[in-house]
Amino acid sequence: MKIIYYTFLLIFCSATIAFAQLEGKRFISGAVSTNFDTYKPETGKSTNGYAYGVSIGLGKFKTATRAGEWSIFSNMNGSKKNFNLGTDTTTLKGIDGFGIGTGYRWSFYKHFSDKFGVFGGPGISVRYNYIKQFQSDGQELFEQKSNEISASLDLSAGAYYALNDRWWLTASLAFSNPVYATYSFGKSKGRTTATSYDNSGLRYQLSPSFNFPSVGIGLRYFFKD
């Protein structure tokens, strides 16, 4: 959370450089993120995973230091995993889940020069996620498919570098999700037996959670007046 707090202190407590030319400017933003990981146990086969995220937003600077932005986004993740079933090892690979969503964000800016600055602010979003997971009890492998519908209030912080009058390079610095609610429903079933059961539930979170993005970078284009 420290990165978010420091960013907001810079935005609200420091002297602001006047950037009157930004007021009223409309823009389109795009960002991508990727993540790859590999786990190699002392014995047995290695496992690996991957994930990506894509977002596109349309926004407008209300003032030189405040902007609002509507966005749509999607994500997908997959993996290769190994499960020990008795004396055999089963390897499964493929897509583990995907999601789509939309949201609105209020961003407040601190411009350090005509090239560089930081921004941060709250956002609200709703999303749908499909998740496929596997669990093993040592004898049977269970496949669980879930559908999730969630709504959240979050805080984020980032930085920008102005390439020219039309293009900005943006990057995420930190993300916090203090208010989050999810309703999930789905089914679990054994892959080799007829065992199956339905599952559903409501989860909510009212305390801050914090994470750094893996690899994320974005571009922003300002439309002509």
TrEMBL record:
Keywords: Signal. Residues 1-20 form the signal peptide. It comes from the Bacteria. This is Outer membrane protein with beta-barrel domain. The lineage of its organism: Bacteria, Pseudomonadati, Bacteroidota, Cytophagia, Cytophagales.
